[in-house]
Each structure stands twice: as C-alpha cells, then as structure tokens.
C-alpha cells in the first residue's frame, strides 16, 4: 500500500494541483467523503463545495464547482468547472455575488427558468466565503 495519494486537479482552463498528499476530503453528490492511501477504486460526481487535502501535516482548502472525482491505484483525478485556493478567493467579490444571488432569488419563483442558476450562484458564493476564511494550518 502506498503512503501517499497522487492528486491531479484540473479545470477546463488549467491544472490547479498536481501533488502527492496524505489525504483528501471532498463534497460528493451524496455527501462529504474522505480518501486515504489504499482506498478502493471509485468514481463520483462532485457538487459545489470544499475540497481539503492534507500534506506534510498541513491542511489546504479549495472551493470547487461541480465535477468528477476518481480514485484508482492511489491516483486521484479531480475534474471540476472551477477551483480556487483559499488564499486566492476575493472575499469582497464573493460577498457581492452572494448579494446579487439573494436579490435575484427574492424576485424569482421556483418555477422560473433562472431560479436554479441563481440558487447555484448563491451556493458558490457561500462556499467561496467559507473557504476564504480558512488558511493553511498545521
């Protein structure tokens, strides 16, 4: 059994992460899950949420936006629409996005075509704010 996981996290725009880590936690479609070296192979979808990994005793946090997470032979591949490290998130921009989404949702009914889009924008803004408040820590 390997002692580390090889992780590649990619968006359509660039590779965000390519490292060996000790463990990973992410938000799947059915809830939060964790992966350690030696984990059984699996594939799941990710929803808007936080991805955390531990490396050398430090925790690193990223906000991710929908995608897929695959584990096979201690190699983890994460494909997401967007990913931002905690220290890269513009908190003021996230707060502004939250405000816009809240205002839009007040004006829309759940039957409206753009309701789900605004709901997702709200969820993204909340996750980005949550992750931005976390710094790398031991």
From TrEMBL:
Gene field: atpC
Lineage, top ranks: Bacteria, Pseudomonadati, Thermodesulfobacteriota, Desulfuromonadia, Geobacterales
Family: Belongs to the ATPase epsilon chain family.
Subunit structure: F-type ATPases have 2 components, CF(1) - the catalytic core - and CF(0) - the membrane proton channel. CF(1) has five subunits: alpha(3), beta(3), gamma(1), delta(1), epsilon(1). CF(0) has three main subunits: a, b and c.
Domain ATP synthase F1 complex delta/epsilon subunit N-terminal positions: 5-83
The protein, known as: ATP synthase epsilon chain
Subcellular location: Cell membrane
Any one GO CC term of the record: proton-transporting ATP synthase complex
Domain ATP synthase epsilon subunit C-terminal: 87-133
Membrane topology type: Peripheral membrane protein
Function: Produces ATP from ADP in the presence of a proton gradient across the membrane.
Pfam families per UniProt: ATP-synt_DE, ATP-synt_DE_N
GO molecular function: ATP binding; proton-transporting ATP synthase activity, rotational mechanism
Keywords: ATP synthesis, Cell inner membrane, Cell membrane, CF(1), Hydrogen ion transport, Ion transport, Membrane, Transport
Main localization, broad class: membrane
Cited InterPro entries: ATP_synth_F1_dsu/esu, ATP_synth_F1_dsu/esu_N, ATP_synth_F1_esu_C, ATPsynth_dsu/esu_N
């Amino acid at each position: 059994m390997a002692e580390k996981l090889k992780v590649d996290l990619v968006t359509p725009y660039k590779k965000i992460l390519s490292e060996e880590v000790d463990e990973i936690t992410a938000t799947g479609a059915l809830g939060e899950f964790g992966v350690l070296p030696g984990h059984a192979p699996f594939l799941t979808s990710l929803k808007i949420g936080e991805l955390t990994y531990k490396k050398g005793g430090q925790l690193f946090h990223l906000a991710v936006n929908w995608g897929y997470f695959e584990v096979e032979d201690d190699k983890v591949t994460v494909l997401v629409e967007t990913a931002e490290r905690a220290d890269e998130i513009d908190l003021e921009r996230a707060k502004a996005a939250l405000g816009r989404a809240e205002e839009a949702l007040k004006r829309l009914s759940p039957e409206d075509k753009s309701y789900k889009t605004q709901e997702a924008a709200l969820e993204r803004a909340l996750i980005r704010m949550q992750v931005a408040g976390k710094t790398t820590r031991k």
